[in-house]
């Protein structure tokens, strides 16, 4: 990882290293993304398996939109420890399972007596046999899993054939396992986040040392974190829209790599419309990737199995692509 990306993710590393892992996903972040997938949820069992169900905005969103989305059942579970899951409060001393099966009294509000609360036998780890058994009952998984276990988490969902929408760090694209899923069209980036930073709530005792923090009128603390993306295998309409290309090709503007027959493109918007060969693009290209327009060839390495380089210098990780049409 280069210095720029280390700086971009310093808040995440600081949170992990200091055990201040209780970052709260704001409801607005969830709402902006979920609007693209509403048709997926009818008659489905939704499982949020990595955040405290009593304080989760994921549970809040799905329980209050239960009838609108036509959800069959909502289940949430949490790990009993505070320190394991990034972006989750995890304030419980024991692992819990909450279930909501819809409105019973006609007010269309998830009241306390309509929500089943149960203690789990184990610790609530998503890898436990108890949580896997719940996973097997679910159709769609929506949550923010621990970043340090992202590969293992996604692998479990793929193995069990689940649909999912989860938060992660954009650098997960560079993991071999994750990139292969993207290349084979089994995983892609979500619709609502394509750059910039996302604001998360933090606990009252969180040390606000980084730039971009604020305290609201009620005394609640927030920090802004770069490099966050949604990862999913559920389709949405804008994913299949062609990227409009305006730039024309010239050898002066698009140098070739020393160790691979492809041109280097520093920004996705600069992909030339009149070049049909292989092109190296930044990983953020995946924010605009339409699998019907482009083919992903390989990641990062040249023919010599070393990082792609130009005049002996290596740009930050590149994805090699070519146009399909």
Order the strands across the largest sheet as they lie in space. Answer: 5-4-3-2-6-7-12-8
Mean pLDDT: 87
Q: What integer value in Å does the Rg equal?
A: 21 Å
Order of helices and strands: HHEHEHHEEEHEHEHEEEEEEEEE
How many strands? 16
Summarize the amount of helix as a percent range: 10-25%
Q: What distance separates the N and C termini?
A: 33 Å
CATH architect. name of the largest domain? 3-Layer(aba) Sandwich
Condensed summary:
It is built from eight helices and 16 strands. It has 325 residues and is an alpha+beta fold.
Essential attributes:
325 residues, alpha+beta, Rossmann fold, 2 domains, eight-stranded mixed sheet, four-stranded antiparallel sheet, 8 helices, 16 strands, 19% helix, elongated, disordered N terminus
Question: Your description of this structure?
Answer:
There is one protein chain. The chain has helices at 3-8, 10-17, 27-34, 57-64, 66-69, 129-137, 150-159, 176-183, and strands at 24-25, 45-48, 73-77, 96-100, 115-119, 140-143, 163-169, 188-189, 197-202, 214-215, 221-226, 228-232, 263-264, 279-282, 294-299, 318-323. With 325 residues, the protein is α+β, with helices and mostly antiparallel strands. The longest helix has 10 residues, at 150-159. It is built from 8 helices and 16 strands. The protein has an 8-stranded mixed beta sheet, with helices on both faces. The two termini are 33 Å apart. The protein has 2 domains: 3-238, 3-Layer(aba) Sandwich (Rossmann fold); 241-325, no CATH class.
